Structure formats: structure tokens, C-alpha cells
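Field log, afternoon session.

UNIT: design team B
ACTIVITY: writing a sequence onto a fixed backbone
BACKBONE:
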């Protein structure tokens, strides 16, 4: 892994909150942890209620993204490789991921990637009823691949991710705008212009 060779050997974001499993897939619990991490006081139950209001009939991923945007947070999708995820964790950004059967149950499950150890080749996730679930790089990659390699950052609009990509950030800002979070979208645009002066929505 050429990219990860430049990262710290071991990182763990110990301050990321944790909620016990609220439902089998764990999406509301995982998102509630990230929202609280960004000082949005909520609970898995409230996230679940808001998902029902905002995204009834949509996929679980779309529902979680809609809820995050409803709190003026930007949903930034990541590339489907482990290097990209570890890079963000190394920069202090927990990553929301979807796995397939990784934690012993049927179907897809959501988790928050909060750490890694390159020497041991393990990842640390908040998932299900485990605050510190350890899994090998290979097991994670298999289960993540089975679930479509969906991984996103839930970011404040004034905070770019590590090695940001202009088109990805601006599309995420447009998604905020499309959901009616116009002021948040404009804040994201102002953040973009500090790095890309010609950025437009």
C-alpha cells in the first residue's frame, strides 16, 4: 500500500462517540455517533425517525445521507479503496461504511471506522454492540466489497477532508442545495474557494 506507507503506523480516534445497536443494520446508531461527534446532539431513535420522514422508501444509505444533510453537514463520498479510508482516519476524520455480514449477522451492516494498526494489519470500528471491533484488512475489504464499497465522510461545511477533490466536494455541496440546505451549501462553496478560487455551484 504505497499511500499508507506515508501514514502513521497506528491511529485511533478515541473521542468518537458510540451507541449500542438500535436495529440490525445499525445505520441510525452509526450516524448518531458521527452527528454527536460534530456536536449535533441526537440519538439513534431520533435519527431513525428523521430517516422515516426524509427518505421513506429510499435505500438505507440514501436515508442516512439525507439525515446528515438535514443537519447542515456535508456528505463526502470516498473512493473504494482501503488507502483512502485510512488516509481520512489518519487526518482525524471517522468514516461511515457499510459492510456485508462482517459482524456475524445476515445482510448489510453499518459501522464507523475509527482506527487502524498497520503493523498488525487490523482496523478498529464502532459497530453493533462493540465499541472497538477489530477486523483484519483482508476481512474488512471482502465484507466492504460485498456491500458495494460505500464509504462517506460526514463533514462540517467549513472542514475539507484530507486531500480533497474539487468535483467531489462541489457535488456534495450541490446535494446540500438540492435538499434545501442553501446556506450550508454556500458555506461549503466558500470553503472550496479557499483552495479552488474559481469554484462554482
Amino acid at each position: 500500500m504505497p499511500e499508507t506507507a506515508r501514514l502513521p503506523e497506528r491511529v485511533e480516534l478515541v473521542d468518537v462517540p458510540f451507541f449500542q445497536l438500535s436495529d440490525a443494520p445499525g445505520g441510525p446508531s452509526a450516524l448518531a455517533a458521527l452527528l454527536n461527534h460534530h456536536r449535533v446532539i441526537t440519538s439513534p431513535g431520533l435519527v431513525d425517525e428523521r430517516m422515516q420522514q426524509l427518505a421513506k422508501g429510499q435505500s438505507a444509505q440514501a436515508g442516512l445521507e439525507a439525515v446528515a444533510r438535514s443537519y447542515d453537514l456535508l456528505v463526502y463520498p470516498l473512493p473504494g479503496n482501503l488507502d483512502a479510508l485510512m488516509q481520512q482516519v489518519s487526518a482525524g476524520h471517522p468514516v461511515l461504511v457499510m459492510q456485508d455480514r462482517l459482524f456475524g449477522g445476515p445482510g448489510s451492516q453499518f459501522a464507523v471506522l475509527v482506527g487502524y494498526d498497520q503493523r498488525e494489519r487490523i482496523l478498529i470500528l464502532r459497530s453493533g454492540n462493540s465499541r472497538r471491533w477489530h477486523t483484519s484488512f483482508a476481512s474488512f475489504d471482502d465484507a466492504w466489497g460485498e456491500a458495494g464499497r460505500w464509504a462517506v465522510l460526514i463533514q462540517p461545511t467549513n472542514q475539507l477532508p484530507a486531500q480533497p477533490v474539487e468535483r467531489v466536494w462541489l457535488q456534495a455541496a450541490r446535494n446540500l442545495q438540492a435538499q434545501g440546505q442553501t446556506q450550508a451549501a454556500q458555506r461549503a462553496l466558500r470553503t472550496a474557494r479557499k483552495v479552488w478560487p474559481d469554484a462554482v455551484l
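LOG NOTE: The chain has one domain: 4-155.
NEXT ACTIVITY: expression trials, pending approval
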